Amino acid sequence: MTPVRVLAVASEVYPVVKTGGLADVAGALPIALKAHGVEMRTLMPGYPDVMRQLSDADEIRRWPDYFGGPGRLLAGSHDGLDLFVLDVPHLYARPGNPYVTQEGIDWPDNGVRFAALSRVAADIGHGLIPAFVPDIVHAHDWQAGLAPAYLHYDNRPRPGTVMTIHNIAYQGKFARELIGAIGLPWDAFNVNGLEYFGGISFLKAGLQFADRITTVSPTYAQEIQTDEGGMGFGGLLRARASVLSGILNGIDVSVWNPQTDPHIAYRFDAGDITFRAANKAVLQQQFNLDSSDEAPLLGVISRLSWQKGLDLLLDAIPTILGEGMQLALLGSGDRDLQDRYQAAARANPGRIGVVIGYDEILAHLLQAGSDALLVPSRFEPCGLTQLCALRYGAVPIVARVGGLEDTIVDIGEADRSGRDATGFKFGPVTADAFARTLRKANLIFHDKVTWRRLQLSGLSTDVSWRNRAGDYAALYRGLMAARYTA
């Protein structure tokens, strides 16, 4: 097996810093790749939380002026991850999350902040660190999208490049004047470069210049080639279809493991899931719901947004109440949706429970105690909560989009697919279709034998990174072979 060196570039990496699923992938993939002969090191920004956790990192490069102020490149490790950290305090030493102020507004210099990350990624690709010269530079999402562009415009021998789209809705759009400030040539501003509706897009840079493009599920790879699903990039992705592929995400099955999970009230496994009922009772108590094993408990762990279909769930509340179901929701996001869910909880005590925010312990308990896990997204590149649900025996009820389509086998499709059913899928993504599927799920819930079969099928599904990491390793080796013979 040919060894491969890969530099991953990501704006967040779990468990160092996380705002969403990108961090989970960036944190789990390097560890899973070790079994496939891939040495991956990850470059990330030196946010305050990162610097606190890597206080003993080694300085390997220093600049007196890096994009407007002093900067350092550090090397360290954390929880099995080998990391390079770009410590540039004037760009990254700020309160708030990695992308927005404490008021939720994008940092006005985000273009410079993430151009700096991509620039050093390209320099590492060119050999800045002699002890680690990568065969591949793997850029994640728009924040790393300039790395393939810098490597292209440097016009020097370079490593292969891979661009992964985690969510095409986030495109890194900035004014054209930024080009000069970030050290790219002005001829990059054209339709075959960074130009995007009169401005520039960091995501487009990666899609235009990477040797290979991946996204996080096969169905999403097809959806983003359409004019609607591509959100402005459908034509470009159709033109590059020969180098575009979808590789499903996995989850860290050591973190999400009902046998060992320290966050749930009672541990269990596929051999005996009777303790799920005890977790359900604790979950009902946590959300101030009536104590009942016969009422199906629907769980939601989600950002509250239009994309996630959380307005459709509000429309389905009469169905949930009419069917005798309960709802426990954990999430935050759109202020109007937050207010409406809190109002629904106040109007229906004992039936609807809502916690606004995110709580890791509560998220694990929701997976372990919910009878079903709802993901009614209008589009979903892959989705991770439904994979966790399978792992914990919570039956997923999901929309027929993206990775939800690829990871759940509908109860009506099992015989045709040859695979055991693991949940329910609905389409089109409308309130009526969702309500019909909830009624169907309620009917099946009271057929204890069939419901138990759905749970056990989910528990036996491989949702780990093992096979997915092998697909990335094959992609890297295929790219290296193609470049070698070109």
Automatic annotation (TrEMBL):
Domain annotation Glycosyl transferase family: ranges: 287-440
Annotated binding of ADP-alpha-D-glucose, by residue: 18
Entry GO CC: cytosol
Molecular-function GO terms, alphabetical: alpha-1,4-glucan glucosyltransferase (ADP-glucose donor) activity; alpha-1,4-glucan glucosyltransferase (UDP-glucose donor) activity
Domain of life, per lineage: Bacteria
Keywords: Glycogen biosynthesis, Glycosyltransferase, Transferase
Pfam families assigned to the protein according to its UniProt record, in alphabetical order: Glyco_transf_5 (PF08323), Glycos_transf_1 (PF00534)
Catalyzed reaction equations: [(1->4)-alpha-D-glucosyl](n) + ADP-alpha-D-glucose = [(1->4)-alpha-D-glucosyl](n+1) + ADP + H(+)
GO biological process: glycogen biosynthetic process
EC number: 2.4.1.21
Pathway(s) where this gene product acts: Glycan biosynthesis; glycogen biosynthesis
All copies of domain Starch synthase catalytic, residue ranges: 5-238
Family label: Belongs to the glycosyltransferase 1 family. Bacterial/plant glycogen synthase subfamily.
Entry function: Synthesizes alpha-1,4-glucan chains using ADP-glucose.
Protein name, as recorded: Glycogen synthase
Lineage: Bacteria, Pseudomonadati, Pseudomonadota, Alphaproteobacteria, Hyphomicrobiales
Gene expressing this chain: glgA
